[in-house]
Amino acid sequence: MSLRYLSGGESHGPCLTAIIEGFWSGVEISPENINNELKRRQQGYGRGGRMKIESDEVDILSGVRLKKTLGTPITLQIKNKDYENWKEVMDPEGEEDDKSRSLIEEKSVTKPRPGHVDLSGALKYGHKDIRNVLERASARETAVRVAIGGLSKELLNKLNISISSHVLSIGSVSINDIAGDSFYESADDSETRCLDKNVTEKMKKEIDTAKERGESLGGTFEVIVNGLPPGIGDYVHWDKKLDGRLSSAIMSIQGVKGVEIGLGFESSRLFGSKVHDEIYYSKSEKSFRRKTNNAGGLEGGVTNGAPLIIRGAMKPIPTLYTPLKSVSLDTKEAFEASVERSDCCAVPACSVIAENVIAWEICKAIKEKFGGDSFEELKRSYEAYLAYLREV
Ligand SMILES: Cc1cc2nc3c(=O)[nH]c(=O)nc-3n(C[C@H](O)[C@H](O)[C@H](O)COP(=O)(O)O)c2cc1C
Questions:
Q1: Of all residues in the chain, what percent carry a pLDDT higher than 70?
Q2: Which residues line ligand 1 (CB under 6 A)?
Q3: How many structural domains compose the chain?
Q4: Closest by CA position to 167, among listed 149, 187, 145
Q5: Where are the alpha helices (H) located in the chain, listed in sequence order?
Q6: Distance between CA 105 and CA 219 in Å, rounded?
Q7: Torsion angle defined by CA atoms of residues 14, 76, 360 and 390, in that order, rounded to the nearest 10 degrees
Q8: Per-residue confidence (pLDDT) for residue 349, from 0 to 100
Q9: pTM for this structure?
Q10: How far is CA 354 from the centre of its chain?
């Protein structure tokens, strides 16, 4: 059975839910670790008011018994703590009556925001109230994707595969442009997830300035996967190529507009001899190695044993406190687009989300190569493959 999941839930509805199918039995799960991923998603300088309300926690409702997976569908739920304030407007079983009507009207959205799917979504589904679109399209949905990533990381850790991320730039401030002299041990220690302490401070100032101007900011981040053997992913069909699948996972995060792997766009400007990673054989480590890692660990959609390096570019948050011009959905008259409570910059959170969507994709690729219904079965075939690689 392959791995897959479906999720449901609105931003201000009762909860977000996912049902995961095909996850191995016998994997020890720590809800604290999943909650820690959820907490990491909620941090970062430049977030708006909602982060203070949320403090997400996962409820595991099926597929796990006494902290061990059963091989049955795993149901994860994250309650929306803000739902209490929205119950009358969002209750799936509620009714529009005289009491709730004025509140529903008050919370209805008719002015589509540029940069959101508000207008296209309303036209596509025939909604008059754009709330019906934004409730699902908003990045709140990524909380459940991060919980799934947290579950995936539990498995990957047991195979000695680790995933980290850090922020490379916010607005015009980039770690590459400044010769930093003091570094954090982990991106988690920085409010902007930037490894350089001085650049972190500059990024915070950049965000403050944007906020003062009623502006928003985007930026770039990098995800690194360590510990993957060569041979994960496939080259035989376009939709099995791991580079395509990882790019798609990152691109599907709200606000991401660019993805690159390894040298990415830069490789198009260089001579071939400066791009391709030369191969040598390490007798001591009994493995084929690369002198450089410009390919970001992937050639032909298959891992080559070097760390995976994937970067994403996030656009500035579309909701601005200096609203952009738009047109009312019902009257067609020009308006300044409505302002929902909004983040000014969410690049640090986006980098955590990216880590977690990558964790899921790696799990899927591992399942395809090594199969297994139980963790023990997976481990046997994984270790046999590692032993084979040492003997090639
Ligand atoms: C963690 C995170 C938080 C976000 N917060 C906001 C926000 O507060 N306000 C907003 O307008 N957009 C926010 N966005 C971006 C929008 O959700 C996104 O731009 C929009 O759904 C349109 O999708 P697209 O940019 O991928 O085309 C956020 C994105 C992420 C990843």
A1: 96
A2: 48, 115-117, 137-139, 142, 253-255, 315, 317-319, 342-343, 346, 349-350, 353
A3: 1
A4: 187
A5: 31-41, 50-54, 83-90, 98-107, 118-125, 131-137, 142-158, 197-212, 242-251, 347-370, 375-391
A6: 36
A7: 170
A8: 98
A9: 0.97
A10: 3
CA 314 to centroid of ligand 1, rounded, Å: 9
Provide CB contacts within 8 A for 302, sequence distance 6+. 230, 231, 232, 233, 234, 235, 241, 242
Question: What residue numbers bound the domain in which 64 lies?
Answer: 4-391
Sign for the pseudo-dihedral over CA of 227, 241, 151, 43:
positive
- Residue among 165, 317, 321, 353 to mutate when testing ligand 1 (max atoms within 8 A of CB): 317
Secondary structure (3-state) at 135: helix
CATH number, residue 20: 3.60.150.10
Token readout for 61 is 């409702």
Q: What is the per-residue pLDDT for 99?
A: 80
The stretches in the chain having pLDDT less than 50 are none
Q: How far is the CA of 216 from the centre of ligand 1 (A)?
A: 11
Q: Are strands 256-261 and 302-303 parallel, antiparallel or unpaired?
A: unpaired
Beta bridge mates, 326: 335
C-alpha atoms less than 13 angstroms from C-alpha of 104 in its C-beta half-sphere:
15
Q: Tell me how far the alpha carbon of residue 251 lies from the centroid of ligand 1, in angstroms.
A: 12
Category of 262 on φ-ψ map: left (φ > 0), alpha (ψ -120 to 50) or beta: left
Going from the Cα of 126 to the center of ligand 1, the distance in angstroms, rounded, reads: 22
Of 146, 14, 148, the closest CA to residue 80 belongs to 14
